[in-house]
Design a protein that fits this description.
The protein is α/β, with parallel strands linked by helices. Among the domains are: 175 residues, FAD/NAD(P)-binding domain, CATH 3.50.50.60; 93 residues. Helices cover 32% and strands 26% of the residues. It is built from 13 helices and 19 strands. Strands 1, 2, 10, 11, 12, 13 and 19 form a seven-stranded mixed beta sheet that branches. Strands 8-7-15-16-17-14-18 form a seven-stranded mixed beta sheet, with helices on both faces. Strand 11 and strand 12 form a beta hairpin. Bound molecules: flavin-adenine dinucleotide (FAD).
Length: 444
Amino acid sequence: MSSQSRDADVIIIGGGIAGLGAGLRLKDRGLDPLVLEAESRVGGRMTTDRVNGFVVDRGVTLFGNGFGSMRALVKRLRLSPLVCKGKFSVGIQDATGCRGYRGGRFADLLLDRGISWRARLASVRFGLDLLRHHRDLVHGCSTRSGSLDGEDARTYFQRIGGEEVFDRIFLPGLNGPVGGAVDTSSRVILMQVLWNLLVRGQWNLTDGVDRIPEAVASEIRVLTEARAFHVEQKDSGVQVEAEVKGKQQTFRARAAIFAVPGQLVPAICPSLPEEILAVLCRTQYSRIVNAAVALSTPPNTPYAGYAFTEDVVPGAEIEMEHLRAPNRCPIATGMAGVFLWDTPQRRRLDAGDESLKQQASDVVEQNFPECRGKVLFVHLVRWNIGIAQFPPGRLRQMTALRKQLAVWNSPFDLCGDYLDGLSSEGALRTGEEAAHRTAKKLAQ
Ligand SMILES: Cc1cc2nc3c(=O)[nH]c(=O)nc-3n(C[C@H](O)[C@H](O)[C@H](O)COP(=O)(O)OP(=O)(O)OC[C@H]3O[C@@H](n4cnc5c(N)ncnc54)[C@H](O)[C@@H]3O)c2cc1C
């Protein structure tokens, strides 16, 4: 394909943080990338809505101190002045009351008088396991943690005598971050979330997380409202058919990177090898709703987040958005982010938007009586493709796929969170990795 007949060196399908990260790396390597993003803005699940003076992060709400690639990206984009440290503490409410745990303070678990000595002993075992494996638990480095991917979280806690600590603390406390699937997740996922977010601590951006994808998009070529629907190999390169602002358009390039959730790839590119299509088809995400409840008075709470056992409030958790970073809410107001998901007992998310808004208000008003009658509005965000799911063995399967991609003689590559855990850091690292592989292939 001559350079005149090409629209770009590499076309990236999907402008979430994985695709944008890939684009920036390709540009660094002297290549000309073009990102096609279906929506009217970039960022995918890392976007922010601004409503009546409230700043609502729609998907990603926080970054872990171990998110090295994200931190490097923020520095490079000159966004470091916006970084603020997060102090996280969670109150877990069960039928006996509410007990609090602070981020980075493992001793809170050991000194917790509300759990038995056996549970405390299991917490020690768990803590030692975290320390022993911490290098393999960094998000985006799951290729190293295959040996931990053999059992689900519940089985693991049973094995170390920690059923109680699992049911009373980790199950309610971590269900939100894993999309309501702690029970069926690989134990390595639970360990990653705990290590990266709770043990190592967190950070955020004062103006909303979308500052990162927006800043990347200002440095590379991006077409929004450009939905790719067919991609194939053609004339020693690739051809991408897309609908751009309602009109069909054809793009040609030397290579393409799919930066969309894995299960969407087979319909766009059915000519990929059977074994890759089969693995991609098995990608699963859980649905989740983020309902931001704007309040005329902030709740009077000692904790930044609240989680509940199933018998108290099934399928919900609360995060205090006004405590997350400065400038999130107008002065003297507050905002509670209520995350809702389906449970085996209750399919919450089948309800209509108004019903979900009411459920979110109810959860806030019931838990903080001082907020009764103080709800200004509820801003609802539904994620049908929400949190990537990793039952035992899935991460190992993804590692095998990534090894295959490294030696694949094809103009195609893949990236996205589904290849490496459930965080924006994993997504970004897979994007950078795909860019590196693609640049290497094109240089040959
Ligand atoms: C409610 C919620 C809370 C979360 N909280 C956190 C958190 O606090 N911290 C954290 O690190 N992670 C969090 N995550 C996870 C994080 O959002 C994701 O891991 C990460 O943003 C995924 O990035 P991605 O680029 O892989 O995918 P996406 O962000 O989904 O990007 C894919 C992009 O592809 C586009 N697209 C799809 N099909 C096409 C097509 N045919 N043509 C062109 N474009 C297409 C989509 O519009 C989208 O923009 C959360 C997720 C959710 C849902």
